[in-house]
Amino acid sequence: xxxxxxxxxxxxxxxxxxxxxxxxxxxxxxxxxxxxxxxxxxxxxxxxxxxxxxxxxxxxxxxxxxxxxxxxxxxxxxxxxxxxxxxxxxxxxxxxxxxxxxxxxxxxxxxxxxxxxxxxxxxxxxxxxxxxxxxxxxxxxxxxxxxxxxxxxxxxxxxxxxxxxxxxxxxxxxxxxxxxxxxxxxxxxxxxxxxxxxxxxxxxxxxxxxxxxxxxxxxxxxxxxxxxxxxxxxxxxxxxxxxxxxxxxxxxxxxxxxxxxxxxxxxxxxxxxxxxxxxxxxxxxxxxxxxxxxxxxxxxxxxxxxxxxxxxxxxxxxxxxxxxxxxxxxxxxxxxxxxxxxxxxxxx
Amino acid sequence: xxxxxxxxxxxxxxxxxxxxxxxxxxxxxxxxxxxxxxxxxxxxxxxxxxxxxxxxxxxxxxxxxxxxxxxxxxxxxxxxxxxxxxxxxxxxxxxxxxxxxxxxxxxxxxxxxxxxxxxxxxxxxxxxxxxxxxxxxxxxxxxxxxxxxxxxxxxxxxxxxxxxxxxxxxxxxxxxxxxxxxxxxxxxxxxxxxxxxxxxxxxxxxxxxxxxxxxxxxxxxxxxxxxxxxxxxxxxxxxxxxxxxxxxxxxxxxxxxxxxxxxxxxxxxxxxxxxxxxxxxxxxxxxxxxxxxxxxxxxxxxxxxxxxxxxxxxxxxxxxxxxxxxxxxxxxxxxxxxxxxxxxxxxxxxxxxxxxxxxxxxxxxxxxxxxxxxxxxxxxxxxxxxxxxxxxxxxxxxxxxxxxxxxxxxxxxxxxxxxxxxxxxxxxxxxxxxxxxxxxxxxxxxxxxxxxxxxxxxxxxxxxxxxxxxxxxxxxxxxxxxxxxxxxxxxxxxxxxxxxxxxxxxxxxxxxxxxxxxxxxxxxxxxxxxxxxxxxxxxxxxxxxxxxxxxxxxxxxxxxxxxxxxxxxxxx
Amino acid sequence: xxxxxxxxxxxxxxxxxxxxxxxxxxxxxxxxxxxxxxxxxxxxxxxxxxxxxxxxxxxxxxxxxxxxxxxxxxxxxxxxxxxxxxxxxxxxxxxxxxxxxxxxxxxxxxxxxxxxxxxxxxxxxxxxxxxxxxxxxxxxxxxxxxxxxxxxxxxxxxxxxxxxxxxxxxxxxxxxxxxxxxxxxxxxxxxxxxxxxxxxxxxxxxxxxxxxxxxxxxxxxxxxxxxxxxxxxxxxxxxxxxxxxxxxxxxxxxxxxxxxxxxxxxxxxxxxxxxxxxxxxxxxxxxxxxxxxxxxxxxxxxxxxxxxxxxxxxxxxxxxxxxxxxxxxxxxxxxx
Lengths: 348, 572, 336
Description:
- The structure holds 3 protein chains of 3 kinds.
- Chain A is an alpha+beta fold.
- In chain A, 22% of the residues lie in helices and 35% in strands.
- Chain A is built from 8 helices and 20 strands.
- The model of chain A has no long low-confidence stretch (mean pLDDT 88).
- Chain B is mostly helical.
- Chain B has helices at residues 3-7, 16-21, 31-53, 60-68, 70-101, 107-113, 122-133, 138-147, 162-187, 190-198, 203-232, 235-240, 245-255, 259-287, 306-342, 345-378, 382-391, 399-424, 437-461, 465-473, 481-507, 510-515, 523-532, 536-571; strands spanning 102-103, 302-303.
- Mean pLDDT of chain B is 80; it is low at 1-27, 289-293 and 566-572.
- In chain C, strands 1, 2, 3, 4, 5, 10 and 11 form a 7-stranded mixed beta sheet that branches. Chain C has a 4-stranded mixed beta sheet with strand order 7-8-6-9.
- Chain C is globular and about 60 Å long.
- Helices cover 44% and strands 15% of the residues of chain C.
- The interface between A and B is medium-sized, with 35 and 28 residues.
């Protein structure tokens, strides 16, 4: 049994489909992530899971129960979901402890107290229980919001862009901390973000959403190295497309030579294709026969990210340790070091 | 203004408060402070004059009052206040909640229509209901006709009673609570309500645990407006034979001919008001913490099931019917019966008189309210705060008492000026201010400025100091900040202030009666003179005209509110 | 448009004082019940009359505070008590006019000429025709008898007509006697006092009470009304003139005096003479069903149906003097 299961879920808003036919599943204790550019429908999908948006097709199951169908939608308050909002939505008229205890209405007084203490300890805000939200920093408010959402032990925790109102430097660190915290409590969670580093730092499974559709539901590693389509390839990580022609199954001719490997079925001989090359697929080697012109470079501290130009005008990226400082216009030796390459049909 | 100086002022150490407001340090008695304090004291003058009577030694009338009727006054006033509080809360908050949270048949029309009862003066609704529900009225006559009952065979609620007065006042005063609470509900962030839902609270629980506590400052403000109107009401309680402070003041002043005892009663009334105002300020001070979350999209309205939708529709229709359609319909029937006599050549002039008085007063009230509220914002000192509060006392003082408070100092001024001119220049200026519209408008301002002030202050409270700073950092001179930043943001509050005062002036009676110049008449006066002569039917045309003149601003008001709401929708 | 109105208002605001060819009237009579007469006066004499109507006490206060510069030349009220109070407050002046003295009976004007009654208003007992035998009625005093328990309707003690009525009782029976009477009378109320005089008539007609106290012109206006229910209610009651064997039925006047600071005393006296004149007296009688103050002018046809009566000859000044005392008596008796 999956903890969360979406079957062909579509959500329409004023007759306009915002989410179309999305299916995914999340196991208990796993942290999922919906990743995509703004306006892609990921927040709408999260709100559908919470019960704020009715589904127009498909069904949503939570802990085995059907909670949303087009004809029947369990109200949010009965779903046992916890939600952390982008603006935290702390209740300004309640202090921290009362905010955290807000969802524990049915609990006994002593259990409430114990749970609040436990969570404040978990989010490292012991002793802040009597403070009011406006007396806290942004990061503290965020942790209160998290504690409040976790307090009633929800079936699933939904996090809507939880780090977007925090300082950039804080985000990754907080994401890791929260992941640890959720894992310790074996909380199933799903996160919505447009920041892939956040997604990688927190999630076990990531879904890339674009135009209301789920492009790929996979681990971070596979999204990066085996993107399902060109959108995912462009959206996740960095990379450039190298044009080629399939010579025979398992061999593609390119400007950099023939590349061998196991390629998808569409790679029939004679087909024009694009290969996705990540910056780490090209290795700088002064002794390599292949020399490409440096047309751009960006300092990254430990390394440089060089943009290299092929005679045809195609650009490729290459990361090189930063003591290899080359000037723009210089030609440097590189070789291909491809363990696995993603291939897409060339666009007409 | 000293803004030019401040632009080149050398950098100085700023206190925390000043840094928050982004303003350079100024002398404690800047022109602002002097201006605000003088304007506030001038406006409070009538109230202070009345309060001055308290210093007269209490006559034997006072002990007579204490022995006989004082307890009645206190009990009745308290019962009215409690009843109106419960009534306006029940109607105003529920209506606001329904129309902002849910979608149901007719919701868009109810949004503005529910404000309409505000246009009906309380004494007029009292007259119409008495006409309908009295023993000899159509309702009871019909009941008797159908069932063959006679007197004493059946029970029927007595409209002219304390309970009836509570009902009448509630029906015309709930719109204040509705108006302010609705704005508060619309301003609540959607995510706050959704957070509550995901934490296991149904819509109902969310209402009580989140929406209501968050809207509390607005609700308290609305109820305090309604209560001040209740305390100042004379027409309704007098007609229904309920003795309150207001009727007591008149009776003591005129019946017992003891102005000191009357003023002492008025001072007790002011005591009630001070308690109200303190409660209201307290609620608003807490409200300052209620804006940690940035305003997000207002919550989308939830569709209601058929049954619930019908229930919401029924509730809104019921209060609209009771508060507006029934009394308005009764007025219309009477007016049709008597319109031939009532609409003479004077009628248009009455209409224009009423409209222009209301227009001029509301514009002045807005200007003064902005001035006072700004002064308070720029110079938040204890002196300024107290001055602004004193200027707000007039609202609950009955109009006729305010009128006497205006008469005395104005006449004193006229005589003093005349004497001085006669001595030094040999000319007589006579009565310069007494018996002019200036005196009348001044009395209106004393009485109704608090309404505008409260609305404007509440609006200013929503403008965060960082906005001033942002505007200044973008090169805007300090004196331009209000025009370029605040006024556009405040538009809704300002409009509300103007229209509330406008409607109040249209309905005003006792002060107009005492202070007006020769041959100057208004719709309210025409309606009242006929009604007080027990010619209800003849008075209905003028009453209906007040209602119609009042509807225009009420509709404008509600349209602007829904427009600002739609605007928020679009920008979300 | 708005600007135009503002300018017009400003103009009005600055024209507070009056010229010599004008008279200013502060009137407690409603505009509808005085303006037509003033218009006739202007048409006859060419003297412009400017009017402010309002409550008598408030107008008196205004007159007092305006003092010597007051634009009012005439102060007009609907009861003698207020006229007396105005005289006491020193805002009126005595005038002598042989016309007024000849036409207005002495009991309806101030002996020194401070004020003159212009119309008479009687406050008799009204009884439900179908339930009350008029022979059981006799005087105001007798209404305190327990046999009327739960049968009497009367408006609030706040009303000046009741205050004057009780003042007349005070004058006849003294404070003690009146206080006892008031307790008995209040004990006989069918309902807490509320509404106006017409409402008392309606309550009696509807069966809520058997006896109502109301001024005759209200009853007459109801009989004359276009509204069928008003007519029917009025027809259900009859007038009983109380105290006919003794001092007579309680009456009050509407009247006026010349203000102390008038700058047009002759014009003011002319206006008073006009209001006491035959034409004005007829108008009072016909339009508002008041009894003319001049014995020679006939009452309206409706009033004549109520029959002849003997009015209380008590000096109306006494009513004014006893007003505060009457309020105290009613307060103590619990007359709301």
